[in-house]
Amino acid sequence: MAVRPIVKYPERSLKQPSEPFTGSPEEAEALIGDLLDTMRASPATVGLAAPQIGVGIRAFVLDVSGHKRATSSQGLVAILDPVLVSGEGADTVREGCLSVPDLTANVRRATQIEIEGRTADGERKRYEMEGFEARAALHELDHLDGLLILDRVGSAGDIFARKVYG
Predict the structure, then answer these.
(1) What pLDDT sits at residue 1?
(2) Alpha helices by DSSP H, 2-45
(3) Active-site amino acid positions
(4) Which residue of 17, 33, 37, 49 has the fewest C-beta atoms within 10 A of its own C-beta?
């Protein structure tokens, strides 16, 4: 497995919808491994989608365990071909993104969701998520659909320069 470079906006590939995963279980494990290694090597990162490492496949990893904003967690989620089954509630919260490193944005998202997809070995899984974990999963799903946080803002007043702490 490897830490891969993060693709950054305005790279056009970030705006393209991803393709379904059609590879072998070994290829799935390798992709998930690269996503995990890259996510873990990136400070304050709780999720990463395949397009962010230059792979146009519907896959992401997510782990909000221990994050100060997380009130619940499924632990590590590594999912192929995820789809949103349902979403309820709504809240607007500031989000950042590795692929948009200089900005944050106020983004409105569902507060409770269900997503479904497959594990690397092909097992179907369904996850019920709420709060910060739901927000993070929806953020990664957006990447798979070619959407960024900048596509989710209501106005230019919802976009902010990222604070840099030294």
Answers:
(1) 80
(2) 25-41
(3) 140
(4) 17
Dist CA 78 CA 164 (whole Å): 30
Q: CA 11, 60, 108: angle at the middle one, nearest 5?
A: 75
- In angstroms, what is the C-alpha Rg of the chain? 15
Angstrom distance (rounded) from CA 161 to CA 28: 36
**Which residue has tokens 């690397």?**
120
Other CB atoms within a 10 A radius of the CB of residue 92 amount to 14
Share of the chain above pLDDT 90, in %: 93
φ, ψ of residue 21 to 5 degrees: the values are -80, 130
Q: Residue 121 is encoded by which pair of tokens?
A: 């070995």
* Tokens standing for residue 7: 């693709």
The two three-digit tokens of residue 90, written as one number = 């709504």
pTM of model > 0.70: yes
AA identity, residue 120: A
- Angle among Cα 23, 38, 136 to the nearest 5 degrees reads 85
Domains in the chain, ordered, with CATH? 12-161 (3.90.45.10)
Per the CB < 8 A criterion, the answer to whether 6 and 52 are in contact is yes
